[in-house]
Amino acid sequence: MTDLDPVIHAQARLRIMAALSGLADGDRMTFPRLQQILDMTAGNLSVHLTKLEQAGYVEVAKSFRGRTPTTSAGLTRRGRVAFEDYTAALRALLEPPKHHPEEG
Amino acid sequence: MNDDDDVPLESPAESLALISRERDAVSRSVQFNPLAYYLPWGFAWLIGFGLLFLRYGPDGRVFVPMPDWLPLVALFSLLAAAAIGTVAMSTAKGRHVHGRSAWQGAVYGWTWFLAFAGVGSTLGRFTKYLPDDEAGLLWGSASVGVTAVMYLAGSAIWLSREMFVLGAWVTVVNIAGVIAGPGWHSLLIAVGGGGGLILFGVALWVRGRPR
């Protein structure tokens, strides 16, 4: 393993982070919509969102529209920075010839 | 159920491809189609002010005979349709996104309404003292001016250079129309304003198309 952030370095969480990074700063996407875009089960998405939330990378908010509760998730400032660092580290891995691609 | 965790991330190149795929999927889902937003307004101005010019031309000329009420009814119906479409699209998009941009969009929408309510009530008080053609110019130029200011404010909210250009352009056309006088103002707004909005929407669409 390299020193890639282990919180993000799992396919499901990387996909969630990448998807949320497509939103504008300060925005959150509703849970059902995120689930639909990522094509993940509610349970799976929820488990990984919790892990990301515990790491301080994702903010999960509950709000009410009428009587229906809506959950939405977005990147925190810290999460955005961590994600940018992660992608920068990936790019760095591609560049120097001395590194061989890791096998996972 | 939870086996996604164990799916190994293949190579950095594949991870990067995965990142841009998911990122683009979300960006696309929240982006609006500029054609759907700007064309209805552009055509409303082009047709509505175009009819006003043809029926109420400079110095009272009538270029195309038609009922007195037709140009204004056409203009207001087209503007109402554009407004309903814009609100419906924004609401549909905003349903899935909460947070900062939801607030910006909602306040921006209400600001349009409040701006026209404020300016409209003032104009309504004073139009009775004006001859018909000057009253028409007052309403037309104040409404177009407010619209231009809203685009300029939008450029500050969304950090959009394009919206600033649009707002500045509509302001210039509006001032030119006021100087030229009743009748000419309608023509300038139809062609410069309506045409400008249509070109603007098409230009944004061409630039934003998936490559």
The overall pLDDT average of chain A reads 88
Largest sheet of chain B: none
Give the count of helical stretches of chain B. Answer: 7
E-strand count of chain A: 3
Report the span from N to C terminus of chain B: 36 Å
Mean pLDDT across all amino acids of chain B: 92
Tell me the β content of chain A. 15-25%
The N- to C-terminal Cα distance of chain A equals 7 Å
Helix fraction of chain A by DSSP (H/I, runs of at least 4) = 40-55%
Q: How big a fraction of the residues of chain B is strand?
A: under 5%
What is the 3D form of chain B? elongated
Give helix % range of chain B.
over 70%
User: Which quaternary structure do these chains form?
Assistant: heterodimer
Q: Return the structural class of chain A.
A: alpha+beta
Largest sheet of chain A at a glance? Answer: 3 strands, antiparallel
Order of helices and strands of chain B: HHHEHHHH
Total number of strands of chain B: 1
* Biggest interface, residues from each chain: A-B, 42 and 33 residues
- What gyration radius of chain B follows from the Cα positions, in whole Å? 22 Å
Domain unit count of chain B: 1
Question: How are the SSEs ordered, and which strands pair?
Answer:
The complex is a heterodimer of chains A (104) and B (211).
Chain A: H1 11-21, E1 27-30, H2 31-38, H3 42-54, E2 58-65, E3 68-75, H4 77-94
Antiparallel strand pairs in A: 1-3, 2-3
Chain B: H1 12-30, H2 34-55, H3 70-94, E1 97-99, H4 100-126, H5 132-157, H6 161-180, H7 184-208
Helix pairs in contact in B: 2-3, 2-7, 4-5, 5-6, 6-7
